[in-house]
Amino acid sequence: MHRLPALLLTVFLLTCFALTLRMDSGAGGARPVHPALAALPAELVWAWERPEDLRWLAPDIGVAYVASSVLLQGDETQVYRRASALLLAPGAPRVPVLHVDMSWRRPPALSEAQSRRVADELLRLAAQANRKVVQLDFEVRRSQRPFLARTIGAIRARLDPSIALSVTALASWCLDDYWLHDIAADEVVPMAFRMGQAQHALRARLLQQRGFTRARCGAAIGFSTDEPMMAVREGRRYYFSPQAWSAARWQALRDTPRSTIPSRL
């Protein structure tokens, strides 16, 4: 009889310990899924700044399209709104994307005014999001990461709470060079392509662990049509094509077998 209270006490202490771990990891761990992301299709194509006719896409495939591009150079912020035609079926799920480039010849000042201008443009694009999701595509050097983090935080603070903020990320940011634990985005999309000189080793690693396992990087993933697909755990998939999309290209992508773990691993 005296063993039951001791057992209950053990269970209670273990439960408290587990809850403490969850509270400790909450700030940098997995966040609750934003309602707009929960309603977003599981697959989307990226439509870059070029003419695209995507009226043939099935209704359950979304389109994340570059709606504006921003160039930061010196103290300047230049905004270029989409000039290429984009044809979509009525009601097609749309996610406007803001693409940001940094000038190499005239490195940007990374001022508050530039951060604010990027935020202004992304908030303007939010009105085009018929599924209440917007995306920021912004690659930075290590020294520029604080600027990106501040900009994402400023966007999230100003964005309507009903609208989800998605951001793309280099694969390395979600592996050993992980720094996104406190990022204010609602979705992080690591790009499992164009991974540099170590791409073969990184691909083998992603195959072995079936995708990205960092807390902020496990809900979505980006692929390219000109690199082998991988069998991963991630729920949402974004697909980039270096050439204009076509029904045949999409079907070829669907028919391509996903790579699995190599036998030597």
Q: How is the CATH topology named? A: TIM Barrel
Oligomerization category of the chains in this entry: single chain
**What would you say the CATH architecture is?**
Alpha-Beta Barrel
Beta fraction:
15-25%
CATH homologous superfamily name? Glycosidases
CATH class group: Alpha Beta
Number of helices: 6
Strand and helix order: HHEEEEEEHEHEEHEEH
Give the termini distance in whole angstroms. Answer: 51 Å
Protein name: DUF3142 domain-containing protein
Organism: Massilia rubra
Structure description:
The structure is a single chain. With 265 residues, the protein is α/β, with parallel strands linked by helices. The chain has a single domain, classed as TIM Barrel (Alpha-Beta Barrel), CATH 3.20.20.80. Helices cover 28% and strands 25% of the residues. The chain contains 6 helices and 11 strands. The strands form 2 sheets. Strands 1, 3, 4, 6, 7, 8, 9, 10 and 11 form a 9-stranded mixed sheet that branches. It has a two-stranded parallel sheet with strand order 2-5. Helix 3 crosses helix 4. The longest helix has 23 residues, at 3-25. The chain is globular. This is DUF3142 domain-containing protein. It comes from Massilia rubra.
